C-alpha cells in the first residue's frame, strides 16, 4: 500500500504526541505521588501534634481544677459539708469529672460527689488504694487508669491537699474523668478526607478513634514514634504519632491514612491527564496538518513543476506562502527561464549542426562514391593495362627465343625495356592509389636479409651495363640474418633507391650499407640502410619536394631521365608502414646519400627462412616434366603465352575458356594443378574455385592445387582468392620464374616424375 506524505506526517505527529503524553503522564504521576505523600505525611504530623496538644490541655485543665479545689479545701472547707459543697460546685463547673472524692489522712473517703446516680464510681475510689497512697506519700499528683463498673476505662487523678502553705498533707482530692471525653476531643477535630486518628493507652487499647471500624486493640504498637510509610498486615499506611506523658500515664496519638487510598489519583487528576493527552494530540494533528499544507504540499507542487520543467515545458511556479519556499520557487523560475533560453539556443544550434552534418554526410557519400569509382577505375585499369602488357611482354619473350638478326634483337630488347618500364609505372600508380585509399597493407613473412640484398644488387647490376658504375653492398655482421617483414616491399624500396642512383649517376660507385641501429625489444631489430652514390646530387630547393608524389626535382634539360616522380614517395610510405623513416642524409655535387630505417621482427622458434630464389635460378628442376596443368583463361594471348611457356618446361596444358568449361573438363580428365584466371565469362575464377572445393568435399577426394592468375593486384582481392579456396596468387604479367617455383612447391615430386 502506498502511504501518502499526509498520513505519514499525521502519524508522526500523533506518535510524537502519544509519546509526549506518556512521558508527561509518568512525570505527572511521579510528581503527584511524591508531593501527595509529602503532603499526607505533613498533614498526619500536624494532626497528631494538634490532637496531642488538645489532650494535654484537657489533662492540664483537669489537674488545674483539682489543684484549685485542694487550695479551696485548705482555706475554707475544713468541714465535711463544706468540702461536699465545694466538690459539688467543682463538678458542676467541670462536666469532665464523672466523680470527685476527698480522702482524709487515714485514706477514708470523707466526701464524694458523682454524676452517676448509682454511685458506681464510688467503688473506683474505694478499690484503688493507690489513688490515696500515691499522692499522699509522694506529695505529687497521681494519675492512673481505672475501669468503671460497666467496663469503660477512665482516668483517675489524685492531688494531695496541703495545709499551712504546704507544711503538711491533710488529705487527698481525687477525680475520675472517663476516656470518652477524649473521644469528644477527637470528634471535635476536623479531619481531612481518608485521614483518621487513634489514641492508645500503654497497652495499645484504643481510647479514642475517628472511625468506628477500629478494633479495641490497635494494630499499631503503642509508645512508638511513627513518621512516614509503614506496612502493617500487608497494608500500606502513612502514619505520624506523638506520645504524651501525664504523670506516668503515656498515651500514643496516631494519625494515619491508607496509602493506596491517599495516593490514588483522583478522578479530577485523571480527567486532567486525559484532557492533556487529547489536547497534545490535537495540537500535534494541527501542527502536522499545517506542516502538510504549508510545507509538504508546496514542496510537492514544486517537485511536480520541476519535473514538468525538466520535460522542457515552460511553466511558472505560483507564489508560495512560506518564505524559504518562495525563495526556492523564485530561484526555480529564473532557472527555468534560463533553461528555456538555453534550450532555444541549443535547439537552434542543433538544427544548424544537423544541416551541416547533412551536408557533410552528402559530401562524404559523394567522396566515398568518387573514391569507390576511383578504386574500381584503378582496378579496371590495372586489369586492362596489365593484361595486354603481360601479353606483350610474353610475346616479346617468346620472340626473343627465335633466331633474330642483331637489329631485330636490339629492337626487341628496347621494346621489352619500354614494356617493363610501363609495367613499373602501372605498379607504382596502383601502389599509390592503395596507399591513398588507406587500403595498403604489408605482408610479413620470414626472409633472409643477406639473400634479399644479394638478389637486389644482382638485379640492379644488369641496369649498370652501359655505365661506368659499380654497386657494392655491405652488411654489418651482427645483424641477425633471419628476419620477418615484408621482403617484397623492402626489395621494392631498395630497387627504387638504387635505380635512382643509377639513373642520376654517369659513373662512380654505389654502395649499400646495412647496419643494426637498435634493438627496441627482444624480438625486434631496427635496421639502418644507407645508399651512397657519386651522381649529380640534388639541389637544395628540391630536397623536400622529391619525397612528394609526382615531384621530380630539378629537370636537367640536357639529359632526359625517365621516371614518374613516384619512387621516393611510395618508398617513404612503405617505410613509414614499417615504423621507420626515409631521409636525404647528404647531397652535393659529389653525389647523394639516402638513408632509411625499418623495424623488423625476429622470428620466434620458426625455421630459417627459405632463401629468396634469385632470378634465373629456380629451386626446382628446369623442366616440369609430366605435370598436367588445367589453364582456365579466356584471353587468347594469355592462353598462348602461358601454355607455350609451360609446355616448354615439360607440362601438358589443357586450356578451358571459362569456369564452366573447366568443371566439365574435370569430369573427364585429371590434372595436377589448375591455373585460374579470375575474370572469366559464364563462371568466374572465384565461383569456379568454390564449386571445385565443394565437389571435392562431397566426393571426399584430395584437393587439387589452384593458383590464381589475375591482373587485379590488390591485397583485398588476394584475400578473396584465398577465401574462395585458392592455394596461391600471382599477378599479371605472370613472373614465370615464380610460377615455376609455385608449381614445384604445390605439386608433389612423386607425382611429377611418376608419369
Ligand atoms: P623518379 O625517379 O621517377 O623521378 P623519384 O621519386 O624516385 O622519382 O625521385 C624524385 C626525384 O628525386 C628525381 O626525379 C630526382 O630529381 C631526384 N633524385 C632521386 N634520387 C636521386 C639521386 N640518387 N641522385 C640525384 N637525384 C635524385
- Strand order across the biggest sheet? 2-1-5-4-3
- Can you count the beta strands? 22
Query: What is the name of the CATH class of the largest domain?
Result: Alpha Beta
Summing up helix and strand content along with how strands pair, one would put the structural category as alpha+beta
Helical content stands at 40-55%
Tell me the CATH superfamily of the largest domain: PAS domain
| Quaternary organisation of the protein chains | single chain
Number of helix segments? 18
The largest β sheet comes out as: 5 strands, antiparallel
What form results from the Cα inertia axes? rod-shaped
| C-alpha end-to-end distance | 94 Å
Could you tell me the strand content as a percent range? 15-25%
CATH architecture of the largest domain: 2-Layer Sandwich
Compute the CA-based radius of gyration.
72 Å
Q: Would you tell me which CATH topology of the largest domain applies?
A: Beta-Lactamase
Give a list of the ligands: adenosine-5'-diphosphate
Give the averaged pLDDT, no decimals: 82
Spans where pLDDT lies below 50 across 5 or more residues: 608-619
How many domains? 4
Structure, explained:
It is a single chain. The protein is of the alpha+beta class. The protein has four domains: 5-33 and 266-307; 38-258, PAS domain (Beta-Lactamase, 2-Layer Sandwich), CATH 3.30.450; 441-601, Histidine kinase-like ATPase, C-terminal domain (Heat Shock Protein 90), CATH 3.30.565; 628-751, Response regulator (Rossmann fold, 3-Layer(aba) Sandwich), CATH 3.40.50.2300. Helix content is 50%, strand content 21%. The chain contains 18 helices and 22 strands. It has helices at residues 5-76, 80-93, 120-127, 130-138, 180-188, 259-263, 267-310, 323-401, 406-436, 449-463, 487-503, 567-577, 636-648, 659-668, 685-699, 715-724, 736-746, 749-753; strands at residues 99-104, 109-114, 142-147, 153-163, 168-178, 195-200, 206-209, 227-232, 235-246, 249-258, 445-448, 468-475, 482-485, 507-521, 524-532, 582-588, 591-601, 628-632, 652-656, 673-677, 706-710, 728-731. The protein has a five-stranded antiparallel β-sheet, sandwiched between helices. It has a five-stranded antiparallel β-sheet with strand order 7-6-10-9-8. Strands 12-14-15-17-16 form a five-stranded mixed β-sheet. A hairpin with a 2-residue loop joins strand 8 and strand 9 (235-246). The longest helix is centred in the middle third of the chain and has 79 residues, at 323-401. The protein is rod-shaped. Residues 608-619 have low confidence and may be disordered. Residues 496, 500-501, 504, 533, 535-538, 546, 552-553, 563-569, 592 line the site of adenosine-5'-diphosphate. The site of adenosine-5'-diphosphate has 20 residues, from helix 11 and helix 12.
Amino acid at each position: 500500500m502506498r502511504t501518502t506524505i499526509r498520513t505519514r506526517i499525521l502519524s508522526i505527529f500523533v506518535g510524537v504526541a502519544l509519546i509526549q503524553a506518556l512521558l508527561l503522564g509518568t512525570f505527572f504521576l511521579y510528581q503527584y505521588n511524591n508531593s501527595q505523600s509529602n503532603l499526607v505525611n505533613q498533614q498526619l504530623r500536624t494532626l497528631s501534634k494538634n490532637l496531642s496538644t488538645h489532650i494535654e490541655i484537657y489533662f492540664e485543665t483537669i489537674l488545674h481544677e483539682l489543684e484549685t479545689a485542694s487550695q479551696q479545701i485548705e482555706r475554707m472547707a475544713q468541714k465535711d459539708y463544706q468540702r461536699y459543697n465545694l466538690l459539688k460546685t467543682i463538678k458542676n463547673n467541670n462536666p469532665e469529672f464523672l466523680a470527685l472524692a476527698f480522702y482524709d489522712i487515714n485514706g477514708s473517703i470523707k466526701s464524694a460527689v458523682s454524676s452517676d446516680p448509682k454511685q458506681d464510681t464510688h467503688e473506683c475510689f474505694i478499690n484503688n488504694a493507690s489513688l490515696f497512697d500515691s499522692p499522699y506519700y509522694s506529695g505529687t499528683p497521681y494519675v492512673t487508669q481505672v475501669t468503671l463498673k460497666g467496663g469503660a476505662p477512665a482516668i483517675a487523678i489524685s492531688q494531695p491537699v496541703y495545709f499551712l502553705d504546704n507544711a503538711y498533707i491533710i488529705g487527698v482530692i481525687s477525680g475520675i474523668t472517663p476516656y470518652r471525653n477524649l473521644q469528644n476531643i477527637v470528634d471535635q477535630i476536623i479531619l481531612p478526607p481518608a485521614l483518621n486518628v487513634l489514641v492508645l493507652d500503654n497497652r495499645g487499647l484504643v481510647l479514642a478513634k475517628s472511625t468506628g471500624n477500629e478494633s479495641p486493640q490497635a494494630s499499631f504498637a503503642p509508645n512508638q514514634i511513627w513518621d512516614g510509610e509503614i506496612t502493617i498486615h500487608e497494608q500500606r499506611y502513612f502514619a505520624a504519632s506523638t506520645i504524651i506523658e501525664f504523670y506516668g500515664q503515656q498515651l500514643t496519638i496516631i494519625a494515619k491514612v491508607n496509602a493506596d487510598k491517599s495516593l490514588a489519583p483522583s478522578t479530577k487528576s485523571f480527567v486532567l491527564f486525559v484532557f492533556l493527552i487529547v489536547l497534545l494530540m490535537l495540537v500535534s494533528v494541527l501542527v502536522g496538518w499545517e506542516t502538510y499544507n504549508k510545507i509538504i504540499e508546496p514542496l510537492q507542487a514544486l517537485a511536480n513543476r520541476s519535473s514538468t520543467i525538466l520535460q522542457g515545458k515552460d511553466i511558472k511556479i505560483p507564489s508560495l506562502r512560506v518564505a524559504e519556499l518562495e525563495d526556492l520557487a523564485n530561484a526555480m523560475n529564473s532557472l527555468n527561464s534560463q533553461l528555456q533560453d538555453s534550450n532555444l539556443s541549443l535547439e537552434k544550434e542543433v538544427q544548424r549542426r544537423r544541416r551541416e552534418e547533412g551536408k557533410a554526410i552528402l559530401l562524404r557519400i559523394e567522396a566515398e562514391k568518387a573514391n569507390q569509382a576511383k578504386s574500381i577505375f584503378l582496378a579496371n585499369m590495372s586489369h586492362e593495362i596489365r593484361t595486354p602488357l603481360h601479353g606483350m611482354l610474353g610475346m616479346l619473350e617468346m620472340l626473343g627465343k627465335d633466331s633474330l638478326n642483331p637489329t631485330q634483337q636490339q629492337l626487341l630488347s628496347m621494346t621489352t625495356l619500354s614494356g617493363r618500364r610501363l609495367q613499373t609505372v602501372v605498379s607504382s600508380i596502383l601502389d599509390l592509389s592503395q596507399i591513398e585509399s588507406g587500403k595498403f597493407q604489408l605482408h610479413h613473412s620470414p626472409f633472409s636479409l643477406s639473400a634479399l640484398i644479394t638478389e637486389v644488387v644482382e638485379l640492379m647490376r644488369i641496369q649498370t651495363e652501359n655505365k661506368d658504375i659499380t654497386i657494392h653492398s655491405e652488411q654489418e655482421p651482427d645483424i641477425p640474418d633471419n628476419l620477418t617483414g615484408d621482403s617484397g616491399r623492402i626489395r621494392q624500396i631498395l630497387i627504387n633507391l638504387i635505380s635512382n642512383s643509377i639513373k642520376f649517376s654517369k659513373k662512380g660507385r654505389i654502395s649499400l650499407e646495412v647496419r643494426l641501429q637498435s634493438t627496441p625489444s627482444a624480438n625486434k631489430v631496427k635496421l639502418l640502410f644507407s645508399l651512397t652514390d657519386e651522381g649529380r646530387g640534388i639541389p637544395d630547393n628540391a630536397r623536400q619536394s622529391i619525397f612528394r608524389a609526382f615531384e621530380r626535382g630539378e629537370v636537367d634539360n640536357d639529359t632526359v631521365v625517365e621516371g614518374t616522380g613516384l619512387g621516393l614517395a611510395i618508398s617513404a610510405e612503405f617505410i613509414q608502414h614499417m615504423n621507420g623513416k626515409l631521409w636525404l642524409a647528404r647531397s652535393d655535387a659529389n653525389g647523394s646519400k639516402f638513408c632509411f630505417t625499418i623495424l623488423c621482427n625476429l622470428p620466434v622458434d620458426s625455421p630459417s627462412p627459405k632463401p629468396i630464389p634469385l632470378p634465373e635460378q629456380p629451386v626446382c628442376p628446369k623442366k616440369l616434366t609430366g605435370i598436367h596443368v588445367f589453364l582456365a583463361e579466356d584471353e587468347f594471348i594469355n592462353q598462348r603465352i602461358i601454355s607455350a611457356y609451360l609446355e616448354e618446361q615439360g607440362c601438358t596444358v589443357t586450356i578451358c575458356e571459362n569456369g564452366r568449361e573447366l568443371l566439365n573438363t574435370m569430369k573427364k580428365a585429371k590434372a595436377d594443378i589448375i591455373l585460374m584466371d579470375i575474370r572469366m565469362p559464364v563462371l568466374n575464377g572465384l565461383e569456379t574455385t568454390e564449386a571445385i572445393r565443394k565437389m571435392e568435399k562431397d566426393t571426399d577426394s584430395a584437393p587439387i592445387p589452384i593458383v590464381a592468375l589475375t591482373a587485379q593486384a590488390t591485397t583485398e582481392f588476394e584475400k578473396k582468392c584465398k577465401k574462395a579456396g585458392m592455394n596461391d596468387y600471382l599477378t599479371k604479367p605472370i613472373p614465370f620464374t615464380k610460377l615455376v617455383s609455385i608449381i614445384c612447391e604445390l605439386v608433389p615430386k612423386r607425382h611429377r616424375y611418376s608419369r
